[in-house]
Each structure stands twice: as structure tokens, then as C-alpha cells.
């Protein structure tokens, strides 16, 4: 079975160019597959694969929008997008193990696999700014970081797209059950309005906004069904 990064691991980019670090990408993918095997199904390796696939799709579409009439179009680094997507949940505070430092974990993983210092630093910086909660605490810092690392926008959008739509609904209930928070199914439904339905307005790319619009509508339809079927229950 092919993987979303196979074209990179084989050494060619979506533009037909040779991609450096193909061995690094393959090694990181193997590490992430093992690392995520300890997570519940809301944040497993399949989630990583989907985020990577969508991040590369956004990259492809955003590049296609660029033309000779857009001399200032962003020149995204495909290797950085790939590594950021693969590693964006490594060091996630929801699952962090005792003794792990989320501010250096990704960098250490990359350096152990021969990654250049500068690239390792940039990937670590990127993954520290992917999360919804980080942006909500300080939106301006996130925007400033995207100006410095534009690839962050693609990984952010891809991660948030996986939180909405049909897959997002399944992940929301899976996470609620895994954490056994005590608020039952209603707690997961509340999460729709508290967070998930807000994500469309936080997309950074045009492609992300277009994809989020449809997936958010699916969330709202499902929530309406839920409320209709539970009407009158206390």
C-alpha cells in the first residue's frame, strides 16, 4: 500500500524535482508510526496520514493558484510541510509522557536521524504552533509565526480539517470516550459549538477555507439531527 509521502520518499516532489532528505522522511515516518501506536484512535497514525495527505493536497492547490501574475506567491518548502505534518502530534501535551519535553522532543527526534540543525529547529518551531489552544491564547503570535514559517499554515489547516466533517465527528466521540470525561455523549456534542464549528474561520489558506466550508456544514447537519433526536430529554 502506498503512503501519502511515498513520492517524497522515492525522491521526487510534486513538481518533479529531486527532494532532499528522502531517507530522513522515511525514518521519521517509521518513528511516528510507532509513536502514535500508543494513542487512542482519535490521534493515531491514520490521523497523521490524513493530515499529511491533506497538507500536500493544499500545497498542490496553493501552488496551482500561483502564476506569473503573482510574483510574490509563497514558495513553500515541501520537505518542511511533510516533516511538520508527520510530527505535528509528537509531544502533544494531551499524551505527553513523564520526562518528555515538548519544546525539544521533535528536534531531538530529527537530529537523531541526521537532520540538519536548521531544519530540525524550524520543524520544532512549526509543530509548537499548530494547535488550536496555542492560537486561541495568542492569535497574533501564531500569525507572526506563519509569516516566518508559511508552511505552518498548511499543516494547521490540514490538522483542523481532520477535526471536522465526518472524520471529525468520529474523532470527537472517540476522544470523549477514551478520556471518559464524565459528561457523556452530550459533552462531545457541546465540543462542536465550543471548538469544531469555529475552525472554518481560523483557516489560513484559500484551499483550507473551501474544504472547511463543506466539512463544517456536515458538523451542523449532524448536530441538528442529534438535537432533534434528543429533544425533550433532560
Quick structural overview:
Helices cover 62% and strands 0% of the residues. α3 runs antiparallel to α4 (78-87), α3 packs across α9 and α10 (165-179) crosses α12. It has helices at 6-9, 22-36, 45-65, 78-87, 105-112, 117-127, 132-137, 139-148, 151-161, 165-179, 184-194, 206-229.
Model description:
This is HD/PDEase domain-containing protein. Residues 1-20 are annotated as: Disordered. Pfam families: HD. Mean pLDDT is 89; it is low at 9-18. The protein contains twelve helices and no strands. The radius of gyration is 18 Å and the shape is globular. By secondary structure, it is mainly alpha-helical.
CATH architecture field: Up-down Bundle
Instruction: Summarize model confidence as the mean pLDDT.
Output: 89
- How many domain modules? 1
End-to-end C-alpha gap: 48 Å
**H/E topology pattern:** HHHHHHHHHHHH
Largest sheet, if any?
none
Give the overall shape: globular
> Helical element count?
12
Strand content: under 5%
Helix content: 55-70%
Radius of gyration from the alpha-carbon trace, in angstroms: 18 Å
Structural class: mainly alpha
| CATH topology title | Methane Monooxygenase Hydroxylase, Chain G, domain 1
Poorly predicted residue ranges: 9-18
- The CATH class is Mainly Alpha
Number of strands: 0
Protein name: HD/PDEase domain-containing protein
InterPro entries: HD/PDEase_dom, HD_domain
Organism: Cytospora leucostoma
Pfam family, one: HD
